[in-house]
Amino acid sequence: MTGTATAKPQVKQLNLPTAGNRRASISKVIIYVVLSLWALTTIYPFFWVIINSFKKKGLIRSDSFSIPTGNAFTMDNYKTAFERVDIFGAYRNSLIISVTVTIVVVLLAGFAAYGLSRYEFRSKKFVYSLIIASMMFPVFSTVIPVFRMMFSWKIANTGNVGLSLLSVILPQIAGNLSFAIIVLMGFIRSLPIDLEEAAFIEGCNIFQIFFRIIVPVAKPSFATVAIFTFLWSYNDLFTQMFFLRYKDSYTITLLLNEISSQAGVNYGLMAAAVVLVVVPVLIVYIFLQKNIIKGMTAGAIKG
Predict the structure, then answer these.
(1) Domains in the chain, please, with CATH?
(2) Which of 10, 148, 177, 266 is the most exposed place for a label (fewest CB within 10 A)?
(3) pTM flag (> 0.70)
């Protein structure tokens, strides 16, 4: 009698949900519901401003929550905003200030972060402590001595548009440097030094190592610093109110403040002005949000 191998029937294992998986799925549902409600509370106010910017003043008072359609829809608020003030000139001044501040801060902070991360020198800990301490002082406590210094340099209140913008650029650079240095140091310290040593052996100097190795590798962190610096500079109303006294040098946020004070109860005009100020910031954030997330998480874990 010949022995034949009997094949055992294959039994499929059913992945039945366990108590742990059910608890995890329920917790995820709760988290998503809470986050969705939180997102609605954040998005709805801006949506309310947008829909009311296309309504007439009287309609906003009587029915501010309806979507404007048909005769209720109007562009008069935006026409009035462009006729009363120089919107494009304000955008130009805002871009000049924000772009200049961003470029200088990224460059200076990159050099400082690289030097503090890679070199040992006397008083290094003291310099790092000063950078940390400078973040603890609010701008309100330094604006008066800074204004007096700018006035003594004959930069502030001169009536010259270029000098007025410079009087805003310099304090904003100083105010954003500490944050930028701390963020970049956290990423540069996590980079392996082998790449820099290999480049040095090949004959690269310090500037070639920085621009050809450090900057490309740390691009997410540099992008994060650039984005936050640009947004903070763009939205900085307090400094601009002190140094920009002439209408030719007004920025878009300062122009919004003027429209709000002049419009009074004209809520449609105020809503249109808010949209004109906020939309460019939203566009920048939407297109660059991946760089913000990468930059904030990069360097958090070594290896």
Answers:
(1) 23-77 (no CATH), 85-297 (1.10.3720.10)
(2) 10
(3) yes
